[in-house]
Design a protein that fits this description.
This protein has about 280 residues and is α/β, with parallel strands linked by helices. About 40% of the residues lie in helices and about 15% in strands. It has a single domain, classed as Dihydropteroate synthase-like (TIM Barrel, Alpha-Beta Barrel). The chain has 9 helices and 10 strands. The longest helix has 18 residues.
């Protein structure tokens, strides 16, 4: 059984898959932008996700949807820091911060957050690795080709599985050499981040191959655009497709964390899968 070390806490990852609830404190996220942009509504939504069974909360103040532009530091901090500060007083569920800015990460970790979820894999800000190391934070290292503004402009790979495996191997080596504990690192293939529909399907089909790297995998496929194209469904009608992708990953023992919008439904999925697997 793998564990995830996050600021002195050891989170067991397996045989049960953890569910990470998404809280977008943004006006323009692809799925629920604007719904929880105010501090009070974001806090209430986060606590509702905990009530529904979320094992982790992922708080983000900058949209990384295709074509999005960076948010100024002051704006991102104003969105997420009050939410994190309040949640650390109201729940014991570990809190993740979805950011690629070291200053946002540092402020939120000081406020009591446990995990940094960085879409750049700790390459976007030269100080991010120092922040993660110094706080002993857990970290989700994601793969993204390009930037959110450009990532869907003709993404190309020689072999998407082999290319991502090399990327993750390099990141693990670099970050552990920098002083970040290997046990603190989780990998995310970045579904929809610089990938075509074919790349996304290939990644999901062969997701179990990343287990060879020896670290847990976080899957963020909830409501993603390729599901909309595959099913011809708008974003609010992609739950069934999201659950199907998650179930496939669970069946292949390919994923230890599901990052989702619809927490209750995914918790039900995980629970039923656990019972069936146990026989």
């Amino acid at each position: 059984m793998k564990t995830w070390r996050v600021r002195g806490r050891e989170l067991p990852l397996g045989p049960r898959c953890l569910v990470m609830g998404i809280v977008n404190v943004t006006p323009d996220s692809f799925s629920d932008g604007g719904q929880f942009v105010h501090t009070d509504t974001a806090i209430a939504h986060a606590l509702e996700l905990v009530r529904q069974g979320a094992d982790l909360l992922d708080i983000g103040g900058e949209s990384t949807r295709p074509g999005s532009q960076p948010v100024p530091l002051a704006d991102e901090l104003a969105r997420v820091l009050p939410v994190v500060t309040a949640l650390t007083k109201q729940t014991s569920v570990p809190i993740s911060i979805d950011t690629s800015k070291a200053d946002v990460a540092s402020a939120c970790l000081q406020a009591g957050a446990h995990i940094i979820n960085d879409v750049t894999g700790l390459t976007g800000d030269p100080r991010m690795a120092d922040v993660v190391r110094d706080f002993g934070a857990g970290v989700v290292v994601m793969h993204m080709q390009g930037s959110p503004a450009t990532m869907q402009v003709a993404p190309k790979y020689d072999d998407v599985i082999a290319d991502l495996s090399r990327y993750f191997s390099e990141r693990l080596q670099t970050l552990t050499t920098h002083g970040i504990a290997r046990e603190a690192i989780v990998l995310d293939p970045g579904i929809g981040f610089g990938k075509t529909r074919a790349h996304n399907i290939k990644l999901l089909a062969d997701l179990a191959k990343f287990q060879q790297l020896g670290r847990p995998v976080c899957l963020g496929v909830s409501r993603k655009g390729f599901l909309g194209k595959l099913l011809d469904r708008p974003v609010e009608e992609r739950l069934a497709g999201s659950l199907a992708a998650a179930a496939y990953a669970l069946a292949d023992n390919a994923v230890q964390i599901l990052r989702v919008h619809d927490v209750a439904a995914h918790c039900d999925l995980v629970r039923v899968w656990e019972v069936l697997r146990a026989g």
